Automatic annotation (TrEMBL):
SUPFAM superfamilies given in the database record: D-aminoacid aminotransferase-like PLP-dependent enzymes
Protein name: Branched-chain-amino-acid aminotransferase
Modified-residue entries (N6-(pyridoxal phosphate)lysine), positions: 223
Annotated Pfam families: Aminotran_4 (PF01063)
Enzyme nomenclature, EC number: 2.6.1.42
Protein keywords: Amino-acid biosynthesis, Aminotransferase, Branched-chain amino acid biosynthesis, Pyridoxal phosphate, Transferase
Organism listed in the record: Lentinula raphanica
Amino acid sequence: MALWKSVGNGTLEGISRVADLDAAKLTITLSKTLKPIPPRHTWTFGTIMTDHMVIAEFDPEIGWSSPEIKPRDSLKIDPASSCIQYGTTVFEGMKAYIDPNGKPRLFRPDMNMARFARSAERMALPPFNTDQVLALIKQLIIVDHRWIPQFTDYSLYIRPTLMGTRLGLGVAASDHATLCIFLSPTGPYFPSDESSKVKAKPISVLAESNVVRAWPGGTGGHKVALNYSAGFLPLRTAQKEGYEQILWLLGEERRVTEAGAMNVFVVVGRDDEGVDLFTPPLDGTILPGVTRDSVLDLAHAYMAGETSLPGTLPLIHARERIFTVADLQRWSAEGKLLEAFGAGTAVIIASIGKIGFHDQGELKNIVLPAHENGIGPIADAFRTRILDIQEGKEEWKIWSVPVFEA
């Protein structure tokens, strides 16, 4: 067997060198019949797919195959493959947007690629060059650019996926892999009634402490497929009780970690001037979200006078801090819990209007202040600013990256 390891951006190097992933070797086979683009009101998240996809295979003796863009189709995977038997699948979630000049852009793709590589390493999957994966993503967007929506709050979702395809039931790391990249046009993750004046529908969450999403030393800080499927049954239970998502708790103190697949923020009034913006620290159980990082970065820049945020806002003291359900209860009782929201690639910002929790066998609720637009001023400011950067309406650092080279 060839010996290989990852250096740099996932570049392969070893005693017996094998082929690295190389976008320059890309071949493109276009679909002979393009699908019609459905009306945008039918774009439920992740249900509509574009015409093409990227495929590349890794073999430990050969390395990475020449990548191919081909008409989107089913994959041929043996039922004894590692990804089916042991869940060795990792993925990323990204989006492409159209800027005012009609050009497609990506939002902070370097963060996605770094996280993709970390997730693959955590699951002992073969490494890959992240620069080459990003180059393949851009080529796929160029091929399927007609699918990028030209409406605010709509985007083209990008799902790079790496699956372990080692054949055999032995409990071992997969030394074979398939890289698949596909695209899906999408609208708001939590759509509001089009006849409503509500800008963004607030969601309700049910705090869950009997089942954990992630645990210390586990894979919660990575985009691993199994992180999500274990939450489906608790989510079904929460939805039967009238809640839309789970608020994941950890430990006997019931520490807040994430909401559904989103990072969590709360806005808490201060006794002095301004508000606190808290989000749980990255302790290995929480995904280092791109949107999470963007909110914190913008908040710090706002406080330093380096940027502005839309609306009339107080001083925002943003920091990572552990907080519990008991803290939420106390802040609510004191009238200091002003806003709560989730942040993630799919939702951008989702306002939380109600938090359910069980107390001595009784289901209770923390109801947050209602806002005319369905979203609080702090959450709305970050949502608007991030959207404007994503869509190329505003420049901030190098977060918005053109797909076409200048």
